Amino acid sequence: MPHILLLDSTLRDGAQGEDISFSLQDKLNIAHTLDDFGIDFIEAGIPGANPKDLLFFQHAAKSSFSHAKICAFGSTRHKGIRPEQDEFLNLMLAAETSHVVIFGKAWLLHVDKIIKATPEENLDMIADTIQFLKDRGRTVLFDAEHFFDGYADNPDYALKTIQTALAAGAHSVTLCDTNGGSTPTFVRQTTEAVFQSIGKESAIGIHCHNDIGCAVANSMLAVEAGATLVQGTFSGYGERCGNTDLSVLIPNLILKKKCTCNIPRLQDLFNVATKLAEISNIAIPGTKPYIGKSAFAHKGGMHIDGVTKLTASFEHISPETIGNHRRFLTSEVSGRSTLLAKMKPFAPQFTKDSPEISLIVEKLKEMEFQGYQFEAADASLELLIRRTLGWHHPHFQLILYKTTGEYPAPNASEPTSAMIQIKVEDTTEITAALGNGPVNALDLALRKALHVFYPCLEDVQLIDYKVRVIDSDAATAAKVRVLIESTDGFHSWTTVGVSTDIIEASWLALQDSIEYKLDVLK
Amino acid sequence: MPHILLLDSTLRDGAQGEDISFSLQDKLNIAHTLDDFGIDFIEAGIPGANPKDLLFFQHAAKSSFSHAKICAFGSTRHKGIRPEQDEFLNLMLAAETSHVVIFGKAWLLHVDKIIKATPEENLDMIADTIQFLKDRGRTVLFDAEHFFDGYADNPDYALKTIQTALAAGAHSVTLCDTNGGSTPTFVRQTTEAVFQSIGKESAIGIHCHNDIGCAVANSMLAVEAGATLVQGTFSGYGERCGNTDLSVLIPNLILKKKCTCNIPRLQDLFNVATKLAEISNIAIPGTKPYIGKSAFAHKGGMHIDGVTKLTASFEHISPETIGNHRRFLTSEVSGRSTLLAKMKPFAPQFTKDSPEISLIVEKLKEMEFQGYQFEAADASLELLIRRTLGWHHPHFQLILYKTTGEYPAPNASEPTSAMIQIKVEDTTEITAALGNGPVNALDLALRKALHVFYPCLEDVQLIDYKVRVIDSDAATAAKVRVLIESTDGFHSWTTVGVSTDIIEASWLALQDSIEYKLDVLK
After folding, report:
1. Please, are residues A397 and A423 in contact by the beta-carbon 8 Å criterion?
2. Cβ atoms A25, B473 nearer than 8 A
3. Which of chain B's ends, N or C, has fewer CB atoms near its CB within 10 Å?
């Protein structure tokens, strides 16, 4: 099977999913995570439609990506004007990406009823938009929107749209099942017909939606028919039922269809998907293929017996292949090799059989049972390991804190106050601060109290704060998991805290954040 | 396309899913719901393995089902004994069902390593188990476990197992992808090869698992190759990543492949799936094809514009076909048509040109600029509209609240306290509560204070609480958006609050939640 290029649209199509809302910092984190994993193209937003997206491109231009091409996304020019008069195309140029993705209409129904153009006008719009962008140095990936519905309706016209795009110099043409209703056999046969019409050597992509639950299968069948570019999102986020889930499609292509991709470490899949889910603040469903917590969990007695005798008896692959782990639902077991991989940068001397590793695994299990998750909180994981190894000595000790919030606020801009007393060696320090909430006030008071002892904390600030209810049955009385991302201007790190009390959970994450700076980053 | 029989295994394979645990009453409710919907065979449990399952069969025998055949499930007899000596087979007979499902091994690896039998012994076990049950009046459906892995390993032997079952008088033979790792093309080609080997007239079924996200597609391809029985669960529950999701496969077969099934009212699908999910106490993921809340939800501006002009432009079917409904998600990229669509159920008298609509749009823009998002907060949106129209009069007024949190906590299980004073007409009420955080304490105190005036609030409780930092540059000093989901046992509704102070943001969402119950739900 061939070499497959991967386009991720989490930041564009994924952002159209219900419950998804990315901040600028989220977008940058996602782009770097995808780049590290080996994604080839990152479709990052619509500069023409959304000023926030334009801001992302300005930041991305200053950032360095090791492999991925950042792509701006937009449509063919508007009807009745020249490309250079099109405000959206000019904003797309202002995004200053080397690659752009342009979508155009391939279904006459849309040409006629939605953009109200003639079939010829639409072809002109495709041709001169691509030409315009190529003339300005852009590599243009063309998305034939609604291609499969268009082909079912009028195959000649649908083919004409992609021939036009290729003739105008598009890098590749992607066949889109925009409404997500095309069946596997129809997708395979149509993709085969496309290659018969345009020749085997053309670069054809596939972009599916999951409205009938077949996005992954449809993408695989298009690849079997000759497509060499696949589009999707992590972990299937997108409009309505979502896009092709790359967290499932990528291992399917590599492990089941023996394709090659530019993914150096497939065993990072689980961590990458988990990190992206945490950034998106969307829980991964337990039954998600490959990356769900239940994906390699065995409950039935006959299954547990079989797996104990021979793992292949009820597992289609070994979970370590993609970084997940096997669980027997009667007794939890967690993964040593993942742990060793995590420890390599700072504690490379341990092996699977080191007694220290057993201790850490025990501790991790206990914490996970309490509701901790460390996939997106590397700094807290490293501290947990250091504490268990006896390598970490706390730089300060909390004696007490008190927070108060009131309405009407005595001070409108800082309605909450925190008082804190800490101890560093034999010296205690007590101080207080006002803030915009109990956690903000506590953060300010803590750093104020520690400043006397550790002036380097002056540069540390929190850049993101996320709260997730773990057991949603009990709502505000349930356990909460707080993630805090901090920076000192050079590094950024994430810590986690869990408690039934949101202030305590925040405190635990805050404490880890400061300890990590003092102990690890110095 | 042919007539397809449906076997649901929610009560057997579904019960092996993590987080699934059915009571006897749950099982009976599920069986009757499936029967009413038109399912042909209900695989209801393993009398041999589970005494609770035997109890179910005793109750089911006294119950009347209008269409479905209740099936007991079990394996071929144990090695080295006669069927009449097999305790499990005798318990299966004791279940007194007219139909039984027997699974046997089709993969030599399992024959050799798991049940440790010779290839011939295994064929004998298949043949005489089926014969034994047929002699006692049972109709026997045979499941060829691991058929696809077995066929990949040794096609001749795998085919021999199903030929043996058919020769022994099995009603049908189902090809199982037990480990869920088979690809669509392999499933289609293998099913075609089965028909070539055993003849076109045999009754062949398909049973898939979703470990590579292809269970639905694989089942469709097997049907195209000639299978006439499909097995699955609602809504895909099962071991590991789950079984074929019948809530997706059934509409695919009927609407996309033009098969017939014994389903009199496909438009009941949404309600049936929702009811089964409630009995199972598992939330349906929003993005679930056909039945998820987002399945026909439109967020992107271009999509909303398209659907408003012509629903087929971004919907593969009309949502009413399966009983779901269209939703327009309100977001900054969308406009008046979305708003009017939202207002239709409670304020149908307005049009695009009504001056009230301009007022509401202005107000929405102002709120969105402050950081509000109403996509997931329908109840707050309706209150905003009612307030702007002058239709809403507050049921209570906040005079003051004070929250305190402290460490070490004076009361470990409820470390936070809130004091609140409210006014209803001319009466003020002051009270306090302890909680697991300031918001929990405030929620409890508010409902305690209001209980005197509005006893109906007793049934209201919060079921989810989510916090999101909006502008991540300033971290804990940034604005936060709080989403609260509430229920009164009949309805659930979501409200939103935004503030730089997390307690105030929570308060705003809490206030809307209570006002929505009092004003709209009454």
Report:
1. yes
2. yes
3. C
B-chain CB neighbours of A463 within 8 Å are: 472-473, 475
Inter-chain contact B477–A440, Cβ cutoff 8 Å? Answer: yes
Q: Is any Cβ of chain B less than 8 angstroms from the Cβ of A85?
A: no
Structure tokens at B441: 């304490």
Give the C-alpha separation, B304 to B297, whole Å: 9
- Interface-testing mutation among A422, A465, A470, A511, with chain B (most B C-beta atoms within 10 A): A465
- The encoded tokens of residue A519 equal 């102990």
Interfacial A residues in 13-42 facing B (CB < 8 Å): 16-19, 21, 23-26
Q: Which residues of B157-174 are buried (b: 16+ CB within 10 A; e: fewer)?
A: bbbbbbbbbbebebbbbb
Q: Are B234 and B8 in contact (CB under 8 A)?
A: yes
When CB atoms are compared, the residue of B18, B403, B463 closest to A286 is B18
Q: Give A345 to chain B, closest Cα distance, Å.
A: 29
Query: What are the per-10-residue average pLDDT scores of chain A (522 residues)?
Result: 95 89 88 97 88 87 95 96 96 96 97 95 98 98 98 98 97 97 98 95 96 98 98 95 98 97 96 89 87 86 80 93 81 56 86 89 81 81 93 94 88 85 94 88 93 90 77 57 85 89 92 94 82
Q: Please, what sign has the CA dihedral across residues A116, A118, A124, A127?
A: positive
Q: Which amino acid, one-letter code, is at B272?
A: V
Q: Is B466 on the interface with A (CB under 8 A)?
A: yes
Beta strands in B312-368 (DSSP E): 327-328
User: Quick one: closest CA in B to A297, which residue?
Assistant: B240
Among B356, B402, B379, which Cα is nearest to B486's?
A: B379
Contacts of B463 in chain A (CB under 8 A): 472-473, 475
Identity of residue B223: V
3-state secondary structure of B262: coil
Here the ipTM equals 0.75
Quick one: which of A49, A60, A74, A51 has its CA closest to A27?
Answer: A60
What is the C-alpha to C-alpha distance for residues A502 and A479, in angstroms, rounded to an integer?
8
Residue A25 CA to residue B473 CA, distance in Å, equals 8
| Three-class secondary structure of residue A114 per DSSP | coil
Q: Long-range contacts for B352-358 (Cβ within 8 Å, ≥24 apart)?
A: B356/B388, B356/B389
Residue A464, min C-alpha distance to chain B (Å): 5
Name the phi and psi angles at B462, rounded to 5: -85, 135
At residue B256, φ and ψ (nearest 5 deg) are -100, -35
CB B202 within 8 A of CB B165: no
Q: Which two tokens stand for residue B522?
A: 């009454």
A38: left (phi over 0), alpha (psi -120 to 50) or beta: left
- Mutation target to probe the B interface, by most B beta carbons within 10 A, among A153, A211, A308 is A211
From CA A509, how far away is CA A487, in angstroms rounded? 14
Give B78's DSSP letter: P
